[in-house]
Design a protein that fits this description.
Layout (H helix, E strand, L loop, with lengths): L1 H27 L20 H4 L17 E4 L8 E4 L2 E4 L1 E5 L9 E3 L8 E9 L8 E6 L4 E7 L2 E4 L20
Antiparallel strand pairs: 1-2, 2-4, 3-6, 4-5, 6-7, 7-8, 8-9
């Protein structure tokens, strides 16, 4: 009697699994009315860099060939992503996001931010002092530099105060604490 009961339970379990698989297949299969993927428009990107107000060039001789990074951070606490763009042998640039919500991209270059440095290969946003304001680890030809965020998209050098001395050729950054 027990063996028949076990067989019935096993058969019911198999039927449930098969029914679930069939229902899953029917729910996930494309319907006949679905649009074929070849009829969908191909995705494309539109270069809005110039119209958005970002006018930055990364340039330089061979040592700068490994750089060209961009750091995305909120330097003024408004919840919008601002960008810090490496400049290579020229100056880097910090651009504050002034885009209206739901509108076209609009950025304004921040003059005298304290982050406009030459020789920048790339940068990483980080809050190294835990004050809730974005700081920057800036990779430069000749050594990395730490910049403390002061709020309002302003920065000051912090390497010396933190005992951070780097004289290398840095192309990557990692932090753990």
């Amino acid at each position: 009697m027990r063996s028949r009961w076990r067989a019935a339970v096993a058969a019911a379990a198999i039927v449930c699994v098969l029914a679930g698989a069939l229902l899953g297949y029917l729910a996930l299969r494309p319907s006949a009315a679905a649009t074929p993927t070849d009829a969908l428009p191909a995705p494309h990107f539109v270069d809005e860099t110039g119209t958005a107000g970002i006018n930055q060039t990364y340039d330089g001789a061979e040592p700068y060939s490994v750089g060209g990074g961009v750091a995305v951070l909120d330097c003024n606490g408004d919840g919008k992503p601002d960008v810090y763009v490496a400049g290579g042998s020229g100056p880097s640039g910090l651009y504050r996001n002034e885009s209206p919500r739901g509108g076209s991209l609009k950025f304004a270059k921040v003059a005298d931010s304290g982050a406009d440095l030459a020789g920048v290969l790339g940068a990483y946003p980080i809050d190294f002092n835990g004050d809730g304001i974005a700081d920057l680890a800036v990779l430069r030809l000749g050594g990395a530099t730490l910049l403390q965020g002061l709020g309002g998209c302003r920065f000051r050098p912090a390497s010396d105060a933190l005992g951070f001395a780097d004289v290398g050729y840095d192309t990557a950054f990692s932090a753990k604490w």
